[in-house]
Amino acid sequence: MQINSTPRFHYRLGLNQPIGSPTAKRLAEMAEAIGQETDGAFRLNVFPESRLGPDPKMLADLRQGALEFFVAGATLGGLAPTSSLPLLPFAFTDSTAVFAALDGALGDRIRGELAQNGVHAFRHYLQNGFHHLTTGTRPIQTAADLAGIKIRSPGGDIARDFFATFGAEAGYIPFNQMYDALKERHFDGQSDPLGVVLSLKLYEVQTHLSLTRHWWSGFTLLANAEAWAALPVEIQRVVERNAEKFALLQRHDTEAINAAGAEELACRGMTVNTADTDSFRAALGPFYVRWREKAGTAAWKLLETYAGEIAG
User: Measuring CA to CA, which residue among 241, 222, 244 is closest to residue 80?
Assistant: First the structure.
């Protein structure tokens, strides 16, 4: 390829993560590597911190072709119903099993559903991690402590159904507005991995950290299908190679931060407790029945191939 002072292709990538997070850092490095390896023919500008709008807007813009690349969290259930399944409470016990599923056959099914809706999904997911609960009111020792609590949670029907099972109310607000919403007590608490609690400094506006590992979540790197198809094959290969490389690096970075998160948050003043997760699982039988019916037998069996048998 010839060196280009003006790129042949100039695309944007939107995401909600903080600029100092492993996700934003690794994606910026990915974009730089792609630019260098294509000799400037392809330029990808990364916009973190919801600078291009909240997730629902970025997803809508991606589908309409107004945005070329987007990193999605738990916002794809309407386009790809199978994408909700890895978020099932207590389905997975470790990230290795999750990524085996998502890099493999379960992910293939999700990618196929997205392709039918004009969205190209890259194979290697990014790590967010296992969720825990923070609260500003009382610690969550058992499932009964969730009654009457208002929780900021990633959007999606599974989250709403899960918290409703325990008498809590799940609400959504854009990621970059969460700190202020918790500070102003619009929510009593929130659900996220420990790295998110650290990166958003939620320890400043939340008192308690209750360790639950109640579900896993990650990020999917997406491209508008037409914008992706417009790229020459040699550029697509460069993008795919770097998307894989930096996804694996981001996974490692985030896993390390999450692993050390509880100790770090305790040092920053949070009161940390380990919740009785058996009390959660004991009440989830009807929940699992509902979601197995929604998913269908084939998708549920595919999930259990990686996660093991899910009670209910």
Answer: 222
Q: Is 308 left (phi over 0), alpha (psi -120 to 50) or beta?
A: left
Q: Is residue 298 part of a domain?
A: yes
User: Into how many domains does the chain fold?
Assistant: 2
Six token digits for residue 309: 């048998």
Q: How many C-beta atoms lie closer than 10 Å to residue 174's C-beta? A: 15
289: burial class by Cβ within 10 Å (0-12, 13-18, 19+)? exposed
- Please check whether residues 21 and 76 belong to one and the same domain: yes
Q: What is the CATH number of the domain that holds 211?
A: 3.40.190.170
Q: Assess if residue 112 is contained within a domain.
A: yes
What was the pLDDT predicted at 4? 52
Query: How far is 120 from 115, CA to CA, in rounded Å?
Result: 6
pLDDT per residue over 75-129, tens digit each?
A: 899 999 999 999 999 999 999 999 999 999 999 999 999 999 999 999 999 999 9
- At 2 the pLDDT is 45
> How many C-alpha atoms does 1 have within 13 Å on its Cβ side?
19
Single pTM value for the model: 0.93
| pLDDT, tens digit, 9 for 90 and up, residues 206-241 | 999 999 999 999 999 999 999 999 999 999 999 999
Are the CB atoms for 120 and 225 separated by under 8 Å? yes
Name the residue range of residue 290's domain.
130-215+261-303
The set of residues, in sequence order, having a beta carbon less than 8 Å from that of 9 and lying 6+ positions away, is 41, 42, 43, 230, 231, 235
Let me know whether 222 and 206 are in one domain. no
Distances (CA, A) of 175 to 16, 48, 55, 152, 191: 6, 11, 9, 10, 12
Residue ranges, the chain, pLDDT below 50: 1-3
In a domain, 310, yes or no: no
